[in-house]
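A common beginner's mistake is to predict each chain separately and then try to dock the pieces by hand. The better habit, illustrated here, is to supply every component at once so that their relative placement is modeled jointly.
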Amino acid sequence: MKVWNCSSFRNSFGAKKMSRKNLSIRCVGIDLGTSTIKTSFGGKRFRLASIIGEPNPAGFVGVTQDTSWENNLIITIDKEEWYVGELARVQSVLKIPLAREGKVKGIKEAKIAVLSALGVLHSESNQDVKYVVGTGVPVATSNTEMQELSKAIVGRHKYVIKNDATGEVRKINIHIVASPVLPEPYGCYYYVLKSRGIKRAFDAVIIDIGFGTTDILSIHKGAIVRPASGSTPDAIDTVAEKIASFLEEQTGHIIKAESLAAVLEKGTKVTISGASYDIKPQLEKVARFVAESIIDTLDRLLRNLPPQASIKYYILTGGGTYILGKYLREALIHRRYTTREQILIPDDPVMANAIGFELVAKYFAEKKLSASSKS
Ligand SMILES: Nc1ncnc2c1ncn2[C@@H]1O[C@H](COP(=O)(O)OP(=O)(O)OP(=O)(O)O)[C@@H](O)[C@H]1O
Ligand SMILES: [Mg+2]
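With all components supplied together, the output reads:
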């Protein structure tokens, strides 16, 4: 299985309508982020924390009220058992992050993540269903690693998943017929094209603000320009760490950046040992600083764009858009990169990549099917 080259989309963005035949192919989009794995399939969208861990059965069997597969997932694959996502985060002593330093940790871990996500979607009655899985990985992942991952995902897989809360077991036997693996922000680019009915590729820069990294992807004539793409560790955890140290100085209590990031999703009120603080002024100051720092990386990368490139849109995506989006937009305009009209934010920045990869998978299913029906 060759890694799909996105330049093949150049003149063919309009994926044909799904034919009757490929209804038996399920097209799924998966975005492997450093904090969460996002999955999109039809109307179903869900997130799993990007962690696996050693089983720790002495934990809480059945005492939780949340019985969702997403939050109680155990996978047994190649005779090894793993806690996945929230269950690993809460219960495992030994935890392995699925991505770090802007890269997927390893092929084995990424495969566990993908099969876990498919396991949540798959029910026993779907045994004969084939899958095409569009997968997004951090921008710093090399082409060779993407190829290896694609190879590892394609094929027949037999494994078991168990719901730790309910005890339900699913034996899974699936056939993944194709797996295009691409840099995460490409999903959002493709989603924007499709949702706006755009038929021809345009030059664009996608800034995907995540938890651990901000990924920047430059696209010229539909192809990724590698030298003008890259990532910076300036992201939501940078914001959270800076505010956490400020609060530690103020209160004398130890504050975990991860918990603060979760608080920032809801607002700017923080409670520490019963006392309430509003961190709005610090957040504004830190967010402005981090946004400027992201633009400095962008500046360096964009110098490697071919001179004939003409950026039509700057697309801001990733969950970090909720916190840093407005500061990045102001900085892009202030530093004269672009105008307000040329900055786009998709309607669901957290899921946009995964939704885009689902569309990529549909396009692929169509191509695969028409190729096999001709042969
Ligand atoms: N509605 C929201 N409001 C505020 N912040 C949010 C919201 N949704 C997500 N976030 C924050 O956005 C951050 C990044 O989320 P995202 O899921 O895009 O990261 P990721 O893709 O896992 O990370 P990376 O891109 O670094 O691999 C998280 O820290 C999360 O707390
Ligand atoms: Mg991401």
